[in-house]
Please model this.
Amino acid sequence: MGGNEERWRKGPWTAEEDRLLMHHVSLHGEGRWNSVATLAGLRRNGKSCRLRWVNYLRPDLKRGRITPHEETIILDLHARWGNRWSTIARSLPGRTDNEIKNYWRTHFKKKSKVALDESAKLKMRQLKRQKFQQEQRQQQLQQLQMQQNIADMKRIMSFLEESENQVEYMPPTVVGKQKDRASNGCCYGSSYALETSMSEDFGMWDGLWNLDDVHGPNFHAAKAS
DNA sequence: AAATCCACCAACCGCAAAGGA
DNA sequence: CTCCTTTGCGGTTGGTGGATT
Model:
């Protein structure tokens, strides 16, 4: 208790302490923080030394305000990872987890309880739309691949049947609604189905974008975690 | 001019995982 | 395998300075 308080200094770091810590790290490198305290002649515990170095003294730190681009990344990654600040910080070179955590708390924590301001809403929607479109594209590709595989299989099967029975190959006929669409000059088959499902989905998603207007930005993140 | 509010930032604390003896 | 130390992470607190009332 009292012994520790006498031994370890607390509170804001002085310029001299910073100098000692920087000098020590430049000579011996990072790590072994507990011994840094004594070796560098500092009356700080290892934890305090590490924190000071990581959050303030490291030479590769980026100073200045968080840029709009960085903010977008933070929003995106927070939606994906939740409060995993160190994970988020790894995607923002020069920024510390502490910095990002502080930024989030001052800028977005409150807004998650109340409604988001318009620009943030817009950003969130854009991000989600982008993500959704990416997923759709992947699904399209998968479907196309599946259809391709089925078509290949059918071709092989009919070829086998043909060669077995020596029967003439009959191309598939266009029937029903497909026929109507074909005659109307509309696209048909897989691409049409995809297009209609896409437009329907967008209608649905336009509604979903608004979920955040009600629940705030943490809604999905909280569900994810 | 004084009081209050708010945003920002640095630092501390507790906990858990990792690593070594 | 267990215990102990070190390290890293996330939550929280406290100080400061500018803006607002």
